[in-house]
Amino acid sequence: TGTPQLILDVKTYQHNLDVVRSKLPTQLKARLVVKSLASMQLLKLASQKLNTQRFMLFHLPHIAEIMQTFEQADILLGKPMPIRAVELFYQSNGQHDIYIQWLIDDLGRLQQYLELAQRLSIRLNVNIEIDVGLHRGGVQNPQQFVALLKLIQQYPRHLKLSGLMGYDAHVAKLPKIIISPEKSYQQSQQTYQHYKAILQQQFPDLWHEGLCFNGGGSPTFMQHCQQSVCNDLAFGSLLVKPSDFDLDHLSELKCALWIATPVLKVLPYSQLPGLELLNHLPHHYQALFVYGGYWR
User: Fold this and answer.
1) Within its chain, how far is the Cα of 103 from the centroid?
2) pTM over the 0.85 mark
3) Separation CA 102–CA 161 (nearest Å)
4) CA 207 to chain centre
């Protein structure tokens, strides 16, 4: 086309799907992160190969597209949604029977969701975000956690606990001089297990077999497959493996997504303004000007 294109290597994508399917233990259900695989064809392929219709969404308008394509969709929001956005969603989609787990990160937000559920005479599935070490939001101590569970317990007609979500992206990103990935992962798992124990022991009436204990992120996929307190694992990027996910743990997976861009012109070497004297030195590299942008 003469313009930049995203090129997906479908065979490599299918190879990655096969690797992931071979690694996932039966007790760990796959949840596809829609923003990382933002194409319905990619999602359909992954859904079929991994036998899942569980999705994590970060953008409310995507719900309608997922609903239309996947009849059994189980949707978990990956971030807490502003109450006004949730209200507008139900005004537009009130007639649809769809399973959504709304992410709740603190008591104030849960109270907003409760008031909306009361006003609309509906029952909302709420999933509590717990901080397992990333420190980017969610419940940070047992007192906050218990306060949320008490409110859910108090209003069973309008709130139902659907599970917990603990995102552990920090595990693979922390410098090893601070803490090893193995130790960081174990700490995050211990934190998660602690919250599960509080729920089961102090709120047995909220505990049920269908609870979704979501964890993960692509960087910790293999660790969760080996040992995890979760039963629901979110991932997406590892299936196409951009360079940011070129990690030791994911070495069996291959890059499947590429940017192809036209080269507009080629010069014998780079010339720097104000340093024309350098032009007389030997040069080892040509200078290429591409039809491009700042691609990560």
Assistant:
1) 13
2) yes
3) 10
4) 24
